[in-house]
Amino acid sequence: MDPRTPCLIGAAQRTVREQPGPEPLDLWEGVARAAAGQTRFPVERLDSIQIVYTDSWQYDTPTGRLAERLGATPRHTAYSKVGGTAPQALIGRAAAGIAAGELDSALVAGAEALATRRAYRQAGEHAPWSHPADPRPPYGWERPPHPSELAHELFLPVHTYPIMETARRAALGLTVEEEMLDRGRMMAPMTRVAAANPHAWRRTPRTAEELIGGGRFVGWPYNSNTVAVIEVDQAAAVLLVSSELADRLGVPGDQRLYLRGWAYAEDTWEVAARPALGASPAIARAAESAFARAGLTLDDMRAFDVYSCFAIALRQACDAIKLDPLDPRGLTVTGGLPYAGGPASDYVLHSTAAMAERLRAEGGHGLVTGVGMHLTKHTYAIWSTEPGGVLGGPEPVFTAEPVPIADTCEGPGVVAGYTVAHARDGARQRGHLVVDLPSGARAYAHVTRDDLLADAESRELVGRRVELTTDGQVNVASW
After folding, report:
1. Listed residue (266, 267, 84) closest to 164, CA to CA
2. How confident is the model over 332-361, as pLDDT tens digits?
């Protein structure tokens, strides 16, 4: 084996339920030391410290503050932008740096303390955390929302993802009730995995009927039981080193995990620009490339963790890679973002750490996927207890061609996908539509009338003709 072959030798997770809990810097330090402690790696000699963007708190120098806590002087640091693919991108770059001989060790860590932030907010207090950035930097978008999305207030995933769900539902000819029940059947096994996971935020097993019949609607047809729970206090870290260093540290061969291959692909950044709202060609290409680089197939996988912020993320992945949603191997090793926890951009570090634990115990290969933004960015990574394959890199193996978006429009259109936003008290607030126009372009639109909102939830609206009016900024649909 090449002495520069990168391997994962440490992985740690932490979940804090007591409120208020620690700040992100404390969590980073805790999981960093825990990951390194698995092999007695001296944290002060880390070559690289990389941190996933945290929504909880903006530090003046995140990697610098963690390095200071650890007593390390790394020659390389990185702090990611927002997005669920950020952990795998950092891991991939760390592995490439080790393989190139530029690094011999790299820590990738992430943490959120959004539950603690909420506890302070509810108490009318500010989080008393250390080293705040001054001035506060802009939000860590890799790319800001489209102007028409901003005008229509369509930038929250809880609104964009159900639009894609309704498009898929209509394309398959499912009824509203059939989609909901299928969703419950797909996600109920995940709750049982979470119940057995000591790090999971929600550890109560649920039936399909309980998932669909309980909870409040957030972005219809999604209810609070089947979407990611983001207000968590959770952290995770992984430690990668060269095989030569692993040998010097005396790490047993069966405790080393290898990144056999990974790939990144992009659908369009704007939801309305997707040629098919309910499907993802980018996922198929990312998976195809990752498996080819690993020299393995879907059948070779012992375990999966498919990104599960919303059901449509699971469904598009299963559709694209031809994985049965009820495959006996399961869709997750953690319990998924709705049950194990969805710590903003950081979840893939948790799924990677959990996959490491599973494969170290059982051997074999596992697939870990990531999703960023509005089902825009996709990472597929194959981990294994057996070295081999070709790493791959961050360059996209596929970039989708967008459908044009009309910012404003008047006249007829046909609904391509939709959702109804709900307030915390359960009241319907507004309809969000993506509309096909006669010109071949797409447009966003609101629905504001209460009777139309109720109608939209009572039957299939996709494919229905609507009339659009505009005030020059916001389009409004009626029928």
Report:
1. 267
2. 999 999 999 999 999 999 999 999 999 999
